[in-house]
Design goal:
Elements (H helix, E strand, L loop, with lengths): L2 H18 L5 H20 L2 E3 H8 L3 H9 L13 E3 L15 H15 E2 L2 E2 L3
Antiparallel strand pairs: 1-2, 3-4
């Protein structure tokens, strides 16, 4: 599930529930949102990246990553002559480690806010 799919799902629910003045169980909704976010995270981690894309994310060069794949130190998620690396398998240079992009945090806050509020009022479950 992509971030856009999750946002669309919860924005649609927000609009429908707002029109109907739906009262919901907060624990159940939180569990659904968390399930969607975990699914999105799993899809993100399992994305197969080209060596160029992997290099951009890891901080290592595409050549270095290609050598690591050929040596078997990084699993090849692609074909022999077109290697790919799963995002979860990427090595990361210490200087490349950084916090999650602010835009991802804003989206998570937006999802949580959309679930918790409608027409400016908090819905208690």
């Amino acid at each position: 599930m992509t971030r856009e799919e999750i946002l669309t799902r919860w924005e649609t629910r927000l609009a429908e529930w707002g029109e109907l003045h739906v009262q919901v169980d907060g624990k159940t909704i939180a569990e659904q949102v968390l399930s969607d976010l975990h699914e999105m995270g799993d899809a993100y981690d399992l994305a197969a990246l080209s060596l160029e894309a992997a290099a951009a994310e890891s901080g290592y060069s595409a050549g270095h990553l290609g050598r690591e794949v050929r040596a078997g130190r990084i699993p090849n998620a692609g074909r022999e002559n077109a290697p790919k690396i799963l995002r979860r398998d990427l090595p990361r240079k210490p200087s490349s480690l950084r916090a999650a992009p602010a835009e991802n945090m804003l989206d998570r806050k937006r999802i949580a806010r959309a679930v918790a509020t409608s027409n400016g009022r908090t819905r208690n479950g």
